[in-house]
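Quiz preparation item.
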């Protein structure tokens, strides 16, 4: 309803930085539908900002496999830097989300990327 009335799908601000990241963190079927709808309405899949830096990192931390799949299908940057954990691989590694770690590695995530709270994915996993 809000999008139909002209709400900006890329508006910045708040804890999650943008609506796509908030929906990715929400998870579940509702979150997945919201992510798909926002992308359909031209939300920038790689927008930076907020707690997790981007939507892929948020979904990876929260263990939202279905949302991670959608974001990867739609071209999310696997190695985008920023946010609390530095990147999606570090977020999934810290949370112990083995399935998501595997998905990200299979798609080409940089296992040695630096940044974030723990510095790299191996330290995040420790």
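Solution:
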């Amino acid at each position: 309803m809000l999008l139909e009335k002209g709400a900006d799908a890329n508006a910045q601000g708040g804890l999650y930085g943008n609506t796509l990241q908030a929906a990715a963190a929400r998870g579940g079927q509702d979150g997945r539908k919201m992510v798909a709808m926002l992308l359909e309405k031209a939300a920038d899949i790689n927008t930076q900002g907020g707690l997790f830096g981007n939507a892929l990192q948020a979904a990876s931390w929260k263990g939202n496999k279905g949302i991670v799949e959608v974001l990867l299908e739609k071209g999310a940057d696997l190695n985008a830097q920023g946010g609390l954990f530095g990147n999606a691989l570090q977020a999934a590694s810290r949370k112990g989300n083995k399935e998501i770690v595997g998905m990200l590695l299979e798609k080409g995530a940089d296992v040695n990327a630096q940044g974030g709270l723990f510095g790299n994915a191996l330290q995040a996993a420790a």
